[in-house]
Amino acid sequence: xxxxxxxxxxxxxxxxxxxxxxxxxxxxxxxxxxxxxxxxxxxxxxxxxxxxxxxxxxxxxxxxxxxxxxxxxxxxxxxxxxxxxxxxxxxxxxxxxxxxxxxxxxxxxxxxxxxxxxxxxxxxxxxxxxxxxxxxxxxxxxxxxxxxxxxxxxxxxxxxxxxxxxxxxxxxxxxxxxxxxxxxxxxxxxxxxxxxxxxxxxxxxxxxxxxxxxxxxxxxxxxxxxxxxxxxxxxxxxxxxxxxxxxx
Length: 248
Description:
Blueprint: E1 3-9, E2 18-24, H1 33-46, E3 69-70, E4 73-74, E5 96-100, E6 109-111, E7 114-115, H2 118-127, H3 148-158, H4 165-169, H5 176-187, H6 196-209, H7 220-224, H8 232-247
Parallel strand pairs: 1-5
Antiparallel strand pairs: 1-2, 3-4, 3-5, 6-7
Helix pairs in contact: 2-5, 2-6, 3-5, 5-6, 5-8, 6-8
């Protein structure tokens, strides 16, 4: 395939960015999207031009670092995948592909297609954990009875990889699906009950301080989420937040 790529180039957060056109030829439909960008970068380097900066790590759909906005969709024109799992057979010969970074006030651009998603890490640090006694009096996790339904729901919430597709897809740049998933994975389990009140209050507070928008139930976040995180997690977070607020 021969393709025209319109790629966002921006030297740093302090510089003005713009879309730059690139022509790439003989792209195999079996290439992954990131492999295609690798080929383009090889061509740029061979011409002594600066390669395009984009984030990636595992390339197995686990880490979420490869987040790109492709033709107006987070992770591109497929469902249930990350950008690294997107293959070029989803496009046609002669297509023009727009490639941009995730757009959100809380995700400032570092360079080109790379954004700073450390806001998610700060939300996690605010409460996305449990305190465990490791002094020798720890209880075997297998000794704590948990219903299969609760375990399954907690595992579904825990599959969130924190890629930020929910934020990029939301018209308000809301992070509530992410925070809802992180709150839910503990709220559904007995191990998470001890710190439940502080957890949800602190995580929501940090989310607001980071500048994320609010949820207006559009549902785009669930549609674009590569792990299919359910909107039910937002409802659960709201319920947990109300209970925690009433406790004072």
